[in-house]
Design brief:
Layout (H helix, E strand, L loop, with lengths): L1 H8 L9 E2 L22 E4 L1 H27 L1 H8 L5 H17 L1 H15 L1 H19 L5 H4 L2 H17 L2 H12 L5 H29 L2 H8 L1 H19 L5 H10 L4 H18 L1 H32 L4 H29 L1 H25 L2 H19 L2 H4 L9 H17 L2 H12 L4 H19 L14 E3 L2
Parallel strand pairs: 2-3
Antiparallel strand pairs: 1-2
Helix pairs in contact: 2-6, 2-9, 2-10, 2-12, 3-4, 4-8, 4-20, 4-21, 5-6, 5-8, 5-20, 6-8, 6-9, 6-12, 9-10, 9-20, 10-16, 14-20, 15-16, 15-18, 15-20, 15-22, 16-17, 16-18, 17-18, 17-22
Length: 485
């Protein structure tokens, strides 16, 4: 009986663990007996211990990477003084955010490289590679001499390090969300996927908390001369920890089977399928790709506006105390972490579309009132405005990790999602601080952040109307997934 099951499974591309052709025999299978079988009535049975390990490692690795990005965002003003000296503070900030945005311009290239590679050699291997590159790029920033020491070479080296970070991150989100989605049972995919963005928030909180402590403990001269290097140098050993966690991840069974087939007579056929698959990732999934870009647009514009840009907005535009500004954002992120898993469960119960639509409507209606509260200036008003925006953002952070992978079939999921995600992030998300700073400088209107979020909410709302509900349903190209009892 076992041999016949394995023979049947070898004709398909396995993605999850384990599969039982007969639902009455679920308990007779172990996590090593895997395969995706597309016939009616067949079910993928997932081992809860394996799912927990995969989710934890993916989320923790994601936290390591976003710690690096968070530190850069929260040290933006200081980095402007170190790498872009100028008599104009706005020009310094623009230059710093320009280097920040440059990393996002290469993210689609990283997605086009790592995405298809993840569909070819496996999720786990690519996630390990992206972790190594991210840690190296971040650690290098901590070693770059200042502009006062080597002149124009300093910002050039900073730009190179940021490009390495951006290239590696191009394969990060698509891989991590795909990995979790492919292991999660259908009824818990929203809840389990929400832990990926929980990891992102942990990384941001870690970065913001460290910068806050440094700002409070060090003088301005010490922070500008050597203190700013500490978070980037810490990223080196943190990257090693993240790499260890990801190397311990078990590759999805789909790619264990692919490696076996690559050594058999089907190698030529597999290579042909890979070439077809790369074209299909870009052109064959055009509708899903457009939906992905629209959803990611509203997700990342609001995300980067709140978590990356607002600390600089409070200090540079509203002249708010830098430490107090960071503490407010830190508190908002902690609030979001507390709500995140519960919102993920809501997306499993009521659906991804209602939860995401709530966020879009909320940003459309409340962006202006929230920013007016923030501009009022008192600590309570700022906390209230930021808290409202943070809770609306949770509608996206809790649902997107499960909604986005469900847009694409298994054979192109990593590649298509990575390409669509990074195109949208590069054009709209990562450029948000730069564009909004420039708009404020050009118009003098400090309400620009609210208008920008409202425009993003409209586009996201259109995408929600056009997308299909994916909650409690199998991923495209995969059999139903249930949890092993």
């Amino acid at each position: 009986m076992q041999s016949s099951k394995r023979a049947q499974a070898s004709e398909h591309v396995p993605t999850q663990s384990p599969v039982a052709p007969d639902p009455t025999r679920l308990e007779k299978h172990t996590s090593s007996e895997v395969g995706e079988i597309g016939e009616t009535g067949e079910v993928t049975v997932v081992d809860p211990a394996m799912v927990k390990r995969a989710v934890s490692a993916a989320a923790l690795g994601n936290a390591m990477e976003w710690f690096d990005f968070g530190v850069y965002s929260y040290l933006a003003v200081t980095l402007g003084h170190v790498f872009f000296p100028s008599g104009n503070p706005t020009a310094q900030l623009l230059s710093t955010f320009g280097a920040f945005a440059a990393a996002f311009l290469v993210r689609p290239i990283g997605g086009m490289v790592f995405g298809p590679l993840g569909d070819r050699i496996g999720r786990q291997k690519v996630l390990a590679i992206t972790m190594i590159m991210m840690a190296v790029g971040t650690f290098a920033i901590g070693l770059i001499p200042s502009y006062a020491s080597i002149g124009v070479g300093a910002p050039i080296l900073l730009l190179v390090a940021r490009l390495v970070q951006g290239f590696s991150t191009g394969g990060e989100y698509g891989g991590a969300s795909t990995f979790i989605a492919e292991y999660a049972p259908d009824k818990k995919r929203g809840f389990l996927g929400s832990w990926l963005e929980f990891g992102t928030l942990v990384g941001y909180v870690g970065g913001a908390g460290l910068v806050t402590l440094m700002t409070a403990a060090l003088s301005a001269d010490d922070l500008h001369s050597w203190g700013w290097r500490i978070p980037f140098l810490i990223a080196g050993p943190m990257g090693i920890i993240g790499l260890y966690l990801r190397m311990r991840l078990e590759e999805t069974p789909a790619f264990a089977q692919l490696e076996k087939e690559a050594r058999t007579k089907e190698k030529v056929r597999r290579e042909a399928e890979k070439r077809i698959g790369i074209r299909e990732m870009v052109f064959g999934q055009w509708r899903a790709m457009l939906l992905c870009i629209g959803l990611v647009l509203v997700f990342n514009v609001t995300d980067y506006m709140l978590l990356s840009y607002m600390p600089s907005y409070l200090t540079s535009e509203l002249k708010y105390d830098e430490t107090d500004a960071l503490m407010v954002v830190l508190a908002v992120m902690v609030l979001m972490m507390c709500v995140q898993p519960f919102a993920g469960r809501l997306s499993d119960r009521f659906g991804r579309r209602p939860v995401i639509a709530t966020g879009c409507v909320g940003f459309l209606v409340l962006s202006v009132p929230a920013l007016l509260l923030i501009r009022q200036g008192s600590l309570f008003a700022i906390a209230l405005g930021m808290g409202a925006l943070g809770l609306l953002l949770v509608c996206f952070t809790s649902s997107m990790p499960s909604a986005l992978p469900a847009l694409f079939p298994t054979k192109v999921r990593y590649g298509s999602l990575s390409i669509g995600f990074n195109i949208s992030v590069s054009l709209f998300g990562g450029t948000t601080p730069l564009v909004v700073t420039a708009l404020i400088g050009a118009t003098g209107d400090r309400m620009m952040p609210a208008y920008y979020m409202m425009a993003a909410a409209v586009i996201g709302g259109i995408a929600v109307l056009l997308m299909s509900e994916s909650a409690r349903k199998p991923l495209p190209g995969s059999p139903p997934a249930v949890e092993k009892s």
